[in-house]
Structures are given as C-alpha cells and as structure tokens.
Amino acid sequence: MKLKDKKAIVTGGTRGIGKAIVYELASEGCNVVFTFHSSHEAAKVIEADAEKFGVKILSIKADASSFKDAEKTVSFALENLGGLDILVNNAGINKDNLLLRMSEDDFDAVINANLKGVFNYTKASIKQMMNQRSGKIINISSVVALSGNAGQANYVASKAGIIGFTKAAAKEFASRNITVNAIAPGFITTDMTDRLNEKQKEAMLSLIPMKRIGLPSEVAKTVTFLASEDSSYITGEVISVNGGIYM
Ligand code: NAP
Fold first, then answer.
1. Which atom of ligand 1 is closest in space to residue 219's alpha carbon?
2. Is 221:23 a contact under the CB 8 Å cutoff?
3. Residue 83 confidence (pLDDT)
4. In which band, very low, low, confident or very high, does the pLDDT at 192 lie, cut at 50, 70 and 90?
5. 142: CA distance to ligand 1 center in Å?
C-alpha cells in the first residue's frame, strides 16, 4: 500500500473523477475526507464503503467557492483524521457558452468554484502542512487549459489559472517539503462529459490518438502517484492524462 495511514481531503468526491480518487486513495490505505455539494445520498453510500478498505472515509457538505467552507472542511479533517498529508482539489463545474452569449454570472460562478476553490482549500490547508513540513497538493486542471476551447472561456480561464497557481504555490512551499502539482485530464467519461450529444462525443473521439475515452480511474491512479513517495522530486508539474489528444 502506497499511502498507508495517510490522511487526505478530496473536494467533489461524490461522482466521476472525484469518486474514483476517493476509492483509489482508500485502496492504498489512505483515510479520506471528501466534500459534496448537492449529492448527499451518494456521499453516504461512498462513506459506507470505508469498511471494505479498512480506512476512514467521511464526507462533509461544502461549496468549493466558499473560503469558510474550506476552513470548516480542513478543521473537520484534522479532528477526525488527526492530520492532513494530501489535498486533492478536484471539485469543478462548467457553464459553457460562446463568449458573445456568456453571462457575467456564469463567468463568475465557474471561476469561483474552480479557481478560487483551489485557493480556498490550499490556503486553509497550508499551515498544517507547513508545520508538519510535508504535504502533497494535487490540483485537477484540464487539457483545455493547454489547448484552449471555443465555448468554454470561463472554464478554460479557471483551469489555466489553476496551472499558474500550481507553479506559484510549488515555488512558495518547496523548501517546506510540500509538493504542488496539477493533472490535466483529457476527455474522461463522467457526468460532465455525458452531457455532450452523440455528435459532439464522436467528434471528440476522432481527435484522440488512443481512440478511446479515458476512465476516471486513470486520472485517480495519477493522483496516487503524485500523492505517494514515488513522486518525491516532482513539483510544479502538469501531468497530462489525455490519450494523446494534446501533446
Ligand atoms: P462531475 O462528474 O460533474 O462531478 C463534479 C464533482 O464536483 C461532484 O462531486 C460535485 O458534487 C462537485 N461539485 C460541483 N460543484 C461544486 C461546488 N460548488 N462545490 C463543491 N463541490 C462541487 O465532474 P468530473 O467530470 O468528475 O470532473 C472532476 C474534475 O475534473 C473537475 O475539476 C473537472 O473540471 C475536471 N476535468 C474533467 C474532465 C472530464 O472529461 N470529465 C476533463 C478535464 C478535467 P455534487 O455531486 O455534490 O454536486
């Protein structure tokens, strides 16, 4: 087990990539607090699976865009897990539209949940990690942060902002043995991508050299790598998990 007795927070752990990350960390012996926003029932089902892994899995309702909620989540994790070794900033939303039609509210909502969310949880966690002189922060960005994408200016800006934030934070905390890295997933099968129609999915698939859509578990395994000692000398890096769609 690569993460035996480690303690982690995962934001947005109820579905898709976040849920796969919770299970993957737990399967490596890690205790996990994860947040949910609206899926209370799903969160309870995941909590109940803790027994299978012999670890603690606990959920807490929290809005990624709220700094108060981030502080509440970190306090909850410290009280219930007794420490914090790993932070995975996964929670994310999209509200796609062409710029001409994009409302100010939709721009703000996406930046606040996706980019400010990363600031909120990093800031709320960092004192603990600095005091213990160790920590692993993993931020979920996106391939579109590297390539751009029409109809997603708010989402792309938030995900590109996460890469800049990751590099700045990596430099600030490197001397404290805290690594900060990002993952840029490509097209991964989750609720977020299920909303695309068949024509959009086929168009996307035709661009992927590996000719298949990625699995949440393939992103989650990269999180484990970045959370474990296997990546001890990697910081400020962006790892693509995208089947070759962008190189
Ligand atoms: P998803 O299936 O739509 O799940 C989103 C998760 O985020 C859910 O757990 C949801 O909780 C939570 N969430 C939503 N709004 C929130 C808020 N305001 N505060 C806290 N939590 C919130 O998404 P996904 O596809 O797994 O994506 C996960 C991450 O990967 C996101 O950052 C996304 O941008 C990124 N990503 C995804 C893809 C892809 O192809 N799927 C590609 C690149 C990057 P509730 O269930 O409680 O609402």
1. 30
2. no
3. 97
4. confident
5. 12
